[in-house]
Amino acid sequence: MRTLYRQPLVWFLCISGALFLADAYSPKSNDAIVVTPAVRERISLLWETQMGSVPSASELDSLITAWIEEEALYREALRLGLEREDSIIRRRLVQKLNFIAESDPITEPEEASLLEFYELHLSDYSLPERLTFRQLYFRKEESAIAALDAIQSGIDASTLGESTMLNRNYAYRSALDINSNFGMDFASQLDTEHLKLWQGPIKSSFGYHLIFISALEPEQTTPFVAARDKVISDYQLASKTLARQRYVETLLQNTEIRIE
Question: Cα(49)–Cα(52) distance, rounded to whole angstroms?
Answer without folding.
Answer: 6
